[in-house]
Design a protein that fits this description.
Four copies of one chain form a homotetramer. The first copy, chain A, is mostly helical. Chain A has two domains: about 5-65, Arc Repressor Mutant, subunit A (Orthogonal Bundle), CATH 1.10.10; about 80-190, Tetracycline Repressor, domain 2 (Orthogonal Bundle), CATH 1.10.357.10. Chain A contains nine helices and no strands. In chain A, helix 1 packs across helix 4 (about 55-65) and helix 6 packs across helix 7. The termini of chain A are far apart. The model of chain A has no long low-confidence stretch (mean pLDDT about 95). At the A-B interface, helix 6, helix 7, helix 8 and helix 9 of A face helix 6, helix 7, helix 8 and helix 9 of B. The first copy, chain A, binds a DNA duplex (31 and 31 nucleotides) through helix 2 and helix 3. Chains A, B, C, D: This is AcrR family transcriptional regulator. Chains A, B, C, D: Keywords: DNA-binding, Transcription, Transcription regulation. Chains A, B, C, D: GO terms for molecular function: DNA-binding transcription factor activity; transcription cis-regulatory region binding.
DNA sequence: AATTAACCGAGACGGTACGTCCTGTCTTGTA
DNA sequence: TACAAGACAGGACGTACCGTCTCGGTTAATT
């Protein structure tokens, strides 16, 4: 019934993912079509439909690191939480400002809205590692007494990342390093003891 | 060249917007088609293409209050900022949890990604009034000495709304009243003097 | 109910007929549209619909002489019927070979197929005068004893014109002067006494 | 680039031709639409556009015998040319008077005007066989000394068929058996020796 | 080594929607 | 009230993709 992954052509798989990435960049997600991917990849359409359930799924696989390949992220730990978080937030802000990454991330986000399954997938593969790594750094700061003991860590990391995401998605304003610093400063203020 | 707005049929305009709203709810944004809108509204397709540049623009007009009609919002002011903000955030959380509003807001968000023009429009029509009203309340609290004098008000309001939006969009967790309270508490902590 | 011809704008009428003729030549009958005629003539579409029942009718009026204006045709009469008919048939053959007239006549013919009313109109306005004039010449030849007395004149004139029309319409072969002569010779042979 | 005829669906081809024939009869050629054909045939529009260049071409294939299938026609040969030709012309006159055939032939003729390619096709497939068969009969009569030896056979056959076609197309008069006889008699008179 | 069963490239198929064009009617403002 | 202008409901156009379906032609792995 369902196809045999053992006989899958790695060659075709790579060609499809590469073609998808190229086309995503060239024409954007809304104008991305299965036919174009197949043509560019030199592949039959059926080969795409055989292995992926939707256009969004192909795009996800083409942009996201393989589930297994998710590296163990770790934040810098200089002993100064606020400084370390600033470093991280500045890096994220810079990424969002990169046109290529901006475009790709918006493509992902578009699909996340309309397909909860893919949303879950993305959160798991892409977001959770970052959130968990950040939580780990906050725990270390807690242990050092820099942050409140009873802190809701989940809410705390969301408070760190959410403002950048919010600005980026709604294009409310530019994601400058200064803004990243402001967010870090305010968030840390909210987490301090007392 | 471009059509004369003075001769526009108000009857057709309303029929189109109503049909769009109904279909959005019934089939969802990705399956919304111009043909279906025209058919439901009893309108020629050309009449839609004449007045709107894209499917997204029709949807926007059907969901968003008219620019002129944007009401002057004002937040409650009991004297206790934190309590007032909790009230507001709880209300927003509740809205996002309503299936109908959830669906509509996702439709808007999808389009915002792919059309900066519409994004700007939405921010201006829908978001800014809320942000401005909230800023006003924060100013009043500053005057009362409850918040730091040098506070970056724009960053502050974003820190209030962003976490709810973040959770909602990425479906990271439920938007409970408790979560709304947590966000408000933390954000206010970040804004306090010292 | 129906419009008052007394108030009809002669200016518009002429502009419409001229525009129609120009467009017929430029784009051909199948691509001729009422909108284009109106635009070219600087006229409202309604003005066309008010005075003509169909696209074909406009074309007819634009190409055919006014009913009243049908000139009294008369064939040459040198005393030699065959020679006179050759003169006439050669002239007709030449007309059909003129690209402009070829195109216009085909436009008329197309419409004649699909609208018997227009067909009748065309026959009456364009064809009958020629047929009658030719009949008249044949009668004169009969009187001179050159043609059979009991000749079916209607059948005879049709036998003269039909072959040219046939070749032209079906593009079976070129309408050369030689062919015109052959037709005249054979037809006259068929009409001679005995 | 162009489609592979080997993979063409015979099922669809037949369905399209049948649907076209039915619709031609039901609504007439000017109101025949590709959409209606596709719908009636249970076929995608693209399948029609893939294999035929125009609406006229579909109609032609639906009405005309396949090129290969053109039967070898032969006229009766009783030894009396005039009688044999009367038989043939009466048959043709009768065909043109049949409402169904009249309608179909007019549809063909309409398209012939506007597309020389189709005209050629029709002449080759439909007309030439008849003309050639008739020429053959005339040759046999020539051999028997009934017709002039130096006769221009092409002009002769055209003189036989053209008058019927002329009357039919321009609706000048009814195609009665008597008229068929008159045409045959006159034409034969034109072909006789001397 | 021959067989066989799957994946593969290719692309025809029945469909749906697109965005454009035109039809014939209706409405508005001008002369 | 005829007119120029053009918005309107409707509907066909020809195109682009969708997702499914054959069709040979390679590959494997099994006989």
């Amino acid at each position: 019934m369902s196809p045999d992954p053992a006989r899958r052509s790695e060659r075709s798989r790579q060609a499809i993912l590469t073609a998808t990435r190229e086309l995503l960049f060239e024409v954007g997600y809304p104008k991305l079509t299965i036919e174009a991917i197949a043509a560019r990849a030199g592949v039959g359409k059926q080969t795409i439909y055989r292995w992926w359930p939707s256009k969004g799924a192909v795009m996800f696989d083409s942009l996201l690191p393989a589930p297994a390949g998710a590296p163990e992220l770790a934040l810098p730990d200089t002993g100064d939480v606020e400084a370390d978080l600033k470093t991280v937030l500045r890096a994220i802000a810079e990424e969002f400002e990169t046109p290529y990454l901006d475009q790709m991330t918006r493509a992902l986000a578009t699909e996340v809205h309309n397909d909860p399954t893919l949303g879950e997938e993305m959160v798991k593969r892409l977001l959770m590692p970052h959130l968990e790594a950040t939580k780990e750094r906050l725990r270390s700061a807690q242990a050092a007494g820099q942050l409140a003991a009873g802190l809701d860590l989940q809410a705390a990391v969301e408070m760190l990342f959410a403002p950048l995401f919010y600005r980026w998605m709604l294009r409310i304003g530019p994601l400058t390093p200064e803004y990243a610093d402001t967010v870090a400063t305010m968030a840390v203020a909210a987490m301090r003891p007392h």
